[in-house]
């Protein structure tokens, strides 16, 4: 399995959950701090700024591609996720707010799934399922199987713009925290 953005706020949790469920996990990041976080979660770190997709797919899958790709980066990176996926693989993204050519997904027979966790709350539909997911995650955290990572910088409500800029910069490691 490949997690795109493995040291980010969602990606670091995806790496841990996949590992907990028995997957062999590779994850992208860049810079010593991000790669160290990924390696600390027993995943193979891939420096996307240094390695081309074809190279890391060849190195980690023998060129076949990953059976599952979880993309927390989105946008243009979704095309990279399609390129890294094996034939008939599953690609999941949490950030699909862009127009994108789905031809690469079509020609590989990929299954594309979009996750938008706020939907149950926004539409008041199946909120109990969302609650069950969070309760199960809390159990894994309490058991020590998943460890949330908080970015070193903290912000208060008057710094919401700076917090968002930190999130968008790609420099944050783990969850960006706004203290209320």
Backbone structural class: alpha/beta
> What is the helix tally?
8
Rounded mean pLDDT is 94
- The 3D shape can be described as globular
End-to-end distance = 36 Å
Low-confidence sequence ranges = none
Number of distinct beta strands: 8
Order of helices and strands: EHEHEHEHEHEHHEHE
Q: Using the CA coordinates, give the radius of gyration.
A: 17 Å
Largest sheet: 6 strands, parallel
Q: DSSP strand (E) fraction?
A: 15-25%
Helix content: 40-55%
> What is the strand arrangement across the widest sheet?
3-2-1-4-5-6
Notes on the structure:
It is a single chain. 41% of the residues lie in helices and 23% in strands. It has 180 residues and is of the alpha/beta class. It has a six-stranded parallel beta sheet, with helices on both faces. It has a two-stranded parallel sheet with strand order 7-8. Strand 4 (66-71), helix 4 and strand 5 (85-93) form a beta-alpha-beta unit.
Features:
single chain; 180 residues; alpha/beta; 6-stranded parallel sheet; two-stranded parallel ribbon; 8 helices; 8 strands
Task: Offer a concise description of the structure.
Helix content is 41%, strand content 23%. It has 180 residues and is of the alpha/beta class. The chain has a six-stranded parallel β-sheet with strand order 3-2-1-4-5-6, sandwiched between helices. A two-stranded parallel sheet has the order 7-8.
